[in-house]
Each structure stands twice: as structure tokens, then as C-alpha cells.
UniProtKB/TrEMBL annotation:
Localization of this protein: Cell membrane
Protein name (Swiss-Prot/TrEMBL): Peptidase A24A, prepilin type IV
UniProt KW Transmembrane keyword: yes
Segments forming domain Prepilin type IV endopeptidase peptidase: 9-113
A Pfam family assignment: Peptidase_A24
Organism per entry: Rhodopseudomonas palustris (strain BisB18)
Xref: InterPro entries: Preflagellin_Peptidase, Prepilin_IV_endopep_pep
Length: 174
């Protein structure tokens, strides 16, 4: 039961926290990425994932990390975004990696267009007292891409082996 609860809640909760953190502060704490990594390793071990499969997931995460940090070096994404994308790739492995990256890219493009449009309009006076909204509205501010990364991850997660392994009888209401 506890293992199933962790499978259902841990990854989605951490990704939602990353998205909210990026929206409100334009940063994603390293703790989120570390918790994603530790959570993966713990659940992979407790869930009986084989060493070969664990190594494959690590390779997927490492591949995304290399590419994401190249993007970070060019100033295209933030460091928190690069780390969270890599940690999410660790959970997905190569089986769902392409789907995740496509969804994250599509949501990222939509988010970028929406924010660029939002930044063209004046902010209503009643909302000017919100520092996070002022930061989000500022034209020189980047895009909180953690929102797109989390949304893409949450679209894919229900299709993964993590959720297929859940015994839904544990959650039945009688």
C-alpha cells in the first residue's frame, strides 16, 4: 500500500511543486531535483526494477542532463529547468523520453507565446502589489519553463510502468 501511494503521489507532487516554484519565484530548488533522483532510486529498488533497467533510466537522465546543460550554457534555459528535466527523464527512461520531450516542448512553446502576449498588456493596478506577478510580467524576465516541464511530465506519467504497477484495489472505496 505504501509503495503504491508513493508511486501515485511522489513524482506528480514534486513536479507540481517545481512548476509552482518556477511560477512564483522563477527558480527551482536543487532539492526538488535531488528528491526526484532519490525517489526514483528508492522506488526502483523497492519496486523490483532490475539493474539493467535502472541503468537505462540513468542513461536517459544523463543524456537529457548533457543536452540541457548545453542549452543552459547558451542561456536558453535555466539551471533548475535543466536539472528538473533530467530528473524527470530519469523516471521516464528511454521508453517515454521522446513523448515527454515533445509534450514539454509543445507546452513550453504555448507558455512562451502566452507570456509574450501577457507582457504586452498593462498589468491591472489591483495586481501590481504581487511581486511574483510583476516579475512574471517584466519583459526582461525569462520564461518559467518548469511549468511546461511539469505539465509534460504529468501528461506522460499515467502511461508509465510506475502507474501500471499500482494495485488499484488498495484505493477502492467500499
Amino acid at each position: 500500500m505504501m509503495l503504491d501511494l508513493l508511486r501515485v503521489l511522489l513524482f506528480p507532487a514534486l513536479m507540481a511543486f517545481a512548476a509552482a516554484s518556477d511560477l512564483f519565484t522563477m527558480t527551482i530548488s536543487n532539492r526538488v531535483s535531488l528528491l526526484l533522483i532519490v525517489g526514483f532510486l528508492a522506488l526502483a529498488g523497492l519496486g523490483g526494477m532490475g539493474l539493467q533497467e535502472i541503468l537505462s533510466h540513468i542513461a536517459a537522465g544523463g543524456s537529457v542532463l548533457a543536452i540541457a546543460f548545453a542549452c543552459f550554457a547558451f542561456g536558453w534555459v535555466g539551471g533548475g529547468d535543466a536539472k528538473v528535466a533530467s530528473a524527470a527523464a530519469l523516471w521516464f527512461g528511454f521508453d517515454h523520453l521522446l513523448e515527454y520531450l515533445v509534450y514539454a516542448s509543445l507546452f513550453g512553446g504555448a507558455l512562451t507565446l502566452l507570456l509574450l502576449q501577457f507582457r504586452q498588456w498593462p498589468l491591472p493596478y489591483a495586481l501590481c502589489g504581487q511581486p511574483w506577478l510583476l516579475r512574471l510580467h517584466a519583459k526582461e524576465t525569462g520564461i518559467p519553463y518548469g511549468i511546461a516541464l511539469a505539465t509534460g511530465a504529468l501528461m506522460i506519467y499515467p502511461e508509465t510502468e510506475w502507474i501500471r504497477a499500482v494495485d488499484l484495489a488498495h484505493f477502492a472505496i467500499y
